[in-house]
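Homework help board

Subject: predicted structure for assignment chain

Our instructor gave us this sequence and asked us to write out the predicted structure in token form, then describe one feature. I got the tokens but I'm not sure how to describe them. Can anyone check?
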Amino acid sequence: MSMKPLRVLALTCSSRPGALGPAVGQWLIDAITPRAAELSVELVPVGLGDLKLPFLDEEEHPSSGVYRNEHTRRWSAIADTAEGFIAVTPEYNYGMPATLKNALDYLGAEWAWKPIGFVSYGNTSAGTRAVQHAKQVVTTLRMVPLGATVAIRIGDSVRNGRLRPDTDRDAAGVALLDELVRVAHALRPMREQARAGTLSGPLPGSYVRRLTPDDASEVTVLQRCCWAEEAVVNETIAVPALHESLADVREWLASWHTTGLGLDGRLLGMVRARPIDTDWYLGRLAVVPDLRGRGLGRWLLRAAEDAAGPGFRRVLLLTGAKSLRNIDLYQSQGYQLVPLSGHDGAVCLAKDVSGKLTDGSSSL
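My token output:
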């Protein structure tokens, strides 16, 4: 399970002047914020009216991901970073408001494999018919609607334009959040694989994706699992990967091209690379201890080499001077030891790629 905060958008759907929606949305945030902190959830309130989305005006189908308008690109960026949604929606004429339908219709891949819960409000049905209407739409977008809902009957719950205190309603809001978090974590492998597209890894069901600063927590854990053994072998704890803070890891993830290998939401391995002059530098090649010996390290090494475009003379990497298993691996893949200065306790290996035929394409 990921240790990074789970971002949940709380969507206030009504844009009608004087609507009850903002009051309901504020109640939701107030009621579930303490529980969100316990679950490491980042709650982000979003008023659909504030997005100022006109009726769908994109020429291309949303599934293409080609967005010509700035308001669409802005909405895409907001929705894409979320891993779950709670829609606070009224019921208009037995259905959801046009603002919600329009916001859903604008996007495609941004919705896939994310849970959505509903807080509805209305008179006769407490807004539940709007929820049933919305569920037909969101499932088509490969979203997963929750079974837990909060339904608010206006006549029983509102006084002077404000929601009356109700501990049962507060508990229902917390239960909705709890279920959303469980489902969001369960769906995470599906989201990751969808983002990876057609780039599959060496194990059945595994996938490749570029790691970002949002993956810092998992990368930090992987580093400490893998480099503890290196510290023992090399008889030193002066290993940067063992001491980097989350901030340190986030910083280098933003600047290195880091390839991650995943399976069922678990980070199995990684390798990072970047150019320096005419050399392509590799580092932090790591595979989870329980899957070593299955060729994942060699696969990641080749993937990192292939990510280099044309014009590079060598691929360079460092490893501990006493890490004989690593040195054997690299030498078996065509690397040779070269002189190194300024790195006590480490050795440098290089692979000549100046004669490599390439059209500049990359497999990653």
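Reply (TA_rk): Your tokens look well-formed. For the description, you could write something like this. Confidence is low (pLDDT under 50) at residues 357-364. That's the kind of observation they're looking for.
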